[in-house]
Amino acid sequence: MHLLLISAVILLPGFLHSASVSSLECGACSLLVSHFEEKIAAVDPKKKIEVGSFRVSPTGEQKGLKEIGYARSESHLTEIIEHACDQAKQYKLVVNTLTGKSVYVHKDATYLKGDESPKMRAKLQNACNDFIDSHEDELLGFLKTAHEEPVKQFCHSDLGVCSSVDVAALPPNDPPKDENEPMNLSDIPDDEL
What we know:
This protein has 193 residues and is an alpha+beta fold.
């Protein structure tokens, strides 16, 4: 009994520490969905592609072709996936000050300082490649349609690789003012001037 209690006490601090950091699989999922959505948004919505059967009938007609938007087409999504995990070089591990949990985010997503070490990025990139190996079909199928909160929908609700805390919003991307910094006139509301 004492051995069990001692084991629990020894393992508990490590368990609590690991629970405060988002999993690499969640980080990889977030990275991929965010990167895809960014690339999709960059495509002209008027750009179209023909899909379907390209067989020509004996009369010279092509039946079964239809035109769809290029941005979410399988062709475009397949192009994006080729180098998507290279984006891990643009990520850092930060503590979300609103939740207290460490999460993987694009370095431009927040002013928060975090781990940007090559070791962390290499782990995230490897996790990203593993994630594609395991979930490529689900990811590409999901991305064919737009979603209001794609990372939350796919990584949390659909796959369950992220907790609701992992996909919680980050604080606004404005660093808090340093209290030791002198005030400017612009800091004082007009009605108080």
